[in-house]
Amino acid sequence: MTQFQFQKTRQDGKARTGMISTPRGDICTPAFMPVGTAATVKAMMPESVAATGADILLGNTYHLMLRPTAERIHALGGLHKFMNWDKPILTDSGGFQVMSLAGLRKLTEKGVTFQSHIDGSKHELTPERSMEIQRLLGSNIVMCFDECPALPAERDRIAESMRLSMRWAERSREAFGDRPGYALFGIQQGGLEEDFRAESAEALREIGFEGYAIGGLAVGEGQEAMFRCLDFAPDQLPEDKPRYLMGVGKPDDIVGAVKRGVDMMDCVLPSRSGRTGQCFTRHGVVNIKNARHADDPRPLDENCSCPACSNYSRAYLHHVFRSQEMISGMLMTWHNLQYFQDIMQDMRDAIAAGTFAAWEADFHAGRANGDIELL
User: How far apart (Å, rounded) are the C-alpha atoms in residues 128 and 138?
Assistant: First the structure.
């Protein structure tokens, strides 16, 4: 069996490119992971997601444990078979959703007791239960169970939360056990505080993981603060393991994260924006709902190979969005996912060529020029 391995191939400044090998296939880094919350990337067929260049998807433990349940998915052959995706899958631990979505929750040293947002039923999620759920799902990359406070927060609250997460990380590692070919990622916490981030990174190093995530960002702190944190946080993590920035983000967030040494990212933005008529292009954001697109025969982005840009005009996309036709969300989600994957490929190429700084300058200049409609 292929073991889980990470090999860095090139580095340009702090930006790096490499390969994660898994029994389910290879993941080229830096990698963007589309989010398949409920065993589906909304408005997309799995083969369409693969066609954009995605090597890996993210699934949500919290949502899948509630419906249809991890036990049911396991009985039906595991998450890969269930959702018809044969490439790698990463699952989050469920901790963030418990904190952000569920009402009436109780946090203790043992774990979290909460009420389902679906039917109000009571559930308990602990490091051990999170590992069990993710094992039943069959995900290739498993995340430690952690606790993530919203920012801003007092230093004492951040320290208390981080140290609880480190104790949970140790329990997650023990519960994960020996699973050749599968990977467990530790999650660095500590808010925006450099000393807490360093303490967290050291605790995770001592436990030992196949990869390391930077958690607790993109939770309301703003891009400038996030980048200040990323100026030091990735450097605190092992050089020879993949680094995953959780829940990020907008295209310029992604480019800034890769510039600072991040290898993996995920975000719901491409699909959520596609369903609401917001399309990302090399020249900025196009809001297809605007009336000025009604008679525009041009594609969203003349340099994009997705079906929305290859086969349809802005006028058509405007029409189906205004008419609330399902094809609207399908086409624009496909476009956004293609755009995000194209950015990742462009960055991999630039890092390999040693031209990342020049590529980044062109990327920002193109977006600053605005919508291609204005050129």
Answer: 15
* pTM for this entry: 0.96
Can you tell me the distance from the alpha carbon of 371 to that of 360, in angstroms, rounded to the nearest whole number? 18
258 contacts 241 by C-beta, under 8 angstroms:
no
- Considering Cα of 267, then 273, then 278, then 281, what sign does the dihedral take? positive
Closest by CA to 64, choosing from 27, 118, 9, is 118
Q: Is the pLDDT of residue 375 over 70?
A: no
Active site residues: 92, 266
CA distances from 265 to 107, 219, 269, 274, 331 (A): 28, 15, 12, 19, 23
Give 47-58 as a DSSP string: HHHHHTT---EE
pLDDT at 103: 64
List of domains in the chain: 5-266 (3.20.20.105), 274-368 (no CATH)
In angstroms, the Cα distances linking 6 to 12, 199, 353 are 18, 24, 20
